Amino acid sequence: MDQKMIMLVAVVMACLAPAVRGTFHLSFSNNTEVNITRSGCGSTKLCVETPTNCDPASSPCLFSSFISGAAMAPNGSDLAVELRGDSAGFIALGLTVNASEGTTMVFVCAQNNGTFFFRTRARNNSNSDGALTPTERLVNEIRGAVNGSVIKCEFTIPSLNATARTTMDTSFTVLLGSGTTTGTELGAFSVNLDAGLLNLADPASNAMTTAAPQNVTTAQNMTTSAASAPTSGAIVLLSVATWAAVMRT
Ligand SMILES: *[C@@H]1O[C@H](CO)[C@@H](O)[C@H](O)[C@H]1NC(C)=O
Ligand SMILES: *[C@@H]1O[C@H](CO)[C@@H](O)[C@H](O)[C@H]1NC(C)=O
Ligand SMILES: *[C@@H]1O[C@H](CO)[C@@H](O)[C@H](O)[C@H]1NC(C)=O
Ligand SMILES: *[C@@H]1O[C@H](CO)[C@@H](O)[C@H](O)[C@H]1NC(C)=O
Ligand SMILES: *[C@@H]1O[C@H](CO)[C@@H](O)[C@H](O)[C@H]1NC(C)=O
Ligand SMILES: *[C@@H]1O[C@H](CO)[C@@H](O)[C@H](O)[C@H]1NC(C)=O
Ligand SMILES: *[C@@H]1O[C@H](CO)[C@@H](O)[C@H](O)[C@H]1NC(C)=O
Ligand SMILES: *[C@@H]1O[C@H](CO)[C@@H](O)[C@H](O)[C@H]1NC(C)=O
Ligand SMILES: *[C@@H]1O[C@H](CO)[C@@H](O)[C@H](O)[C@H]1NC(C)=O
User: Between 221 and 141, whose confidence is greater?
Assistant: First the structure.
């Protein structure tokens, strides 16, 4: 009985949550201006993109940049992110410690027919289908803009620390990708760029690959999108379960 009530409340709340706002673990900045350029790439911010060296002011260009704040033990450091890409659905940044095990934190900037929305998700690195499951990672200062198929967003991930060991670690494998949306439901995460293991605190961390594009890890043709349809139902259920779990605590 109680459980049913909780589920019902969770469903109602999930439905009431406006598309533009996301959920409670997300906070938005009311500064709506989103201006993403290559200015500072390699010097003040670390940039990754596909195609190589593309300009986020033009299409196609899937681009992301990172500025890592000061390390504050034991919490880690804040990471300021810019993300820009072309999609009628979503674009996403994936950060993982080891792409062949564990999970990838996925930060999604999406559009629902021209309206921006933001989500956090997890991908199980052991599964090849790219399915995304809801997670409640804190994200601050979210700003987003959609113009046709161009999605731009900026956000801050607080307290990022790649290690469970004693020294600070800001090295993550960085993935950029995209996928489809149905309303605000997300399809699978399709990886367009595996930028490899990068130190997010070092703007020149990938200087060798950008200077000489001889050995760039090319966009991988992962066969992910085909598997997306059957997962959306599961995502809805998981979403509700998450709400229910939160309501209970
Ligand atoms: C939001 O906007 C109001 C008025 O426009 C401003 O006073 C306030 O500082 C803004 N808050 C943030 C977090 O930008
Ligand atoms: C966007 O940023 C660039 C570089 O920081 C600046 O030159 C440009 O004027 C900005 N554009 C807008 C519309 O703010
Ligand atoms: C670490 O995080 C905790 C919980 O969010 C917070 O209370 C504390 O102030 C943070 N410490 C630093 C140094 O940022
Ligand atoms: C990163 O996490 C480890 C293990 O929890 C901790 O010892 C270390 O102090 C953290 N570093 C920072 C800068 O928060
Ligand atoms: C990543 O995970 C794989 C499989 O568990 C393991 O063999 C490999 O050593 C790990 N790599 C790193 C750098 O930890
Ligand atoms: C998308 O938006 C356009 C214009 O705002 C509208 O005409 C169209 O019906 C919308 N499509 C859907 C599926 O909501
Ligand atoms: C990831 O998927 C594998 C295989 O499907 C499963 O054994 C494992 O428990 C999953 N890990 C997580 C964290 O869900
Ligand atoms: C949207 O994109 C079109 C063409 O791509 C451009 O002309 C227009 O200025 C853009 N609108 C905004 C608000 O940036
Ligand atoms: C990638 O695409 C090429 C040509 O389209 C194909 O030959 C290859 O098998 C694909 N690789 C994977 C892993 O799907």
Answer: 141
